[in-house]
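mind reviewing both lines:
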Amino acid sequence: MDTPVSEAGLQAFMGILPPTPHIRVAEFTRGRPELDTGRLEGLETIYARVTGQRPSIALDHPRPDAAAHEEYGEGVLNGIWCGRAQPFPTPEDALAVLHGFCRALIPHGVLHLDTDRPRWERGDTAEELLGLLAATGFHPRRVDCEPARVRVLAIRKWRCCADGPRPLYDTHAV
């Protein structure tokens, strides 16, 4: 059963996007899109908090079967919203999709992933999925593991840090 996007979850996503006057977000989902530009423009971003001006927001809805890095190229998206994602049939499939998301995002870009809990044959699949996120270049900021679902808000790592990336932006430069 699909659950609606919570305002708190959406604000958490928008609130850590890199500070820039132009934001580009892609929504990868199965079924009906969950997001629209008007809804995103009403939420606070770091850029709006620092400058007092709202950034322009471009929201894309690519083909359901599109691979992020093939659809967009490398380092062009500020955020990826992947709600109601297709379940990953194998760890290798998850790894390929997450690598594509990482390549399509700019450094410190944000990923929201909401998917059915994988049903792989081995181990705790939620923990394994978090391990795959780390292996592909993401640092989870928020994780919600339910019996049937896994929701993760993660930042693309820019450089290696022992405790993960810190989105410390030079507010004077913004």
Notes: Residues 7-156 form a domain with the Rossmann fold fold (CATH 3.40.50.150). The longest strand covers residues 105-116. The chain has one domain: 7-156.
